[in-house]
Amino acid sequence: MVNGVSRFDRPLLRRLSLWAAPVAYAALIFHFSSESNPLPALTENVWDKALHFIEYAGLALLVCRGWLGEGFGRAAAIASAVAITALYGATDEWHQQWVPGRDSSVFDWAADTIGAVAGAAAFATLAAVWRARPDER
Questions:
Q1: What is the pTM of this model?
Q2: DSSP 134
């Protein structure tokens, strides 16, 4: 036992540390997608597609972090993160067609998917820069 954590719990804690953030982030997206007019001060002043791009870039970044932490190679982590995030965006658009005051749009899904590509690419770039830094210990 190390720091009160048995060796059997370490893999579970590691996985939780990898996946808690993307799951919580996806739940937050679902929550706001369930509202007829979420964050009106923001949504009335910022272009809709930019908001989709930003929120799905964030999700893909977190999912990419999870896959890399699970041991996926960089290319597989990026491809999987983009695919999962784009699929989540599609299900979110489908979900919105049932919410009063919301609609489903293929253009919103395209913004989600482009954001997913950007988020995964940003994570890969940041990971490469971090890995290339000299050890500062």
A1: 0.84
A2: P
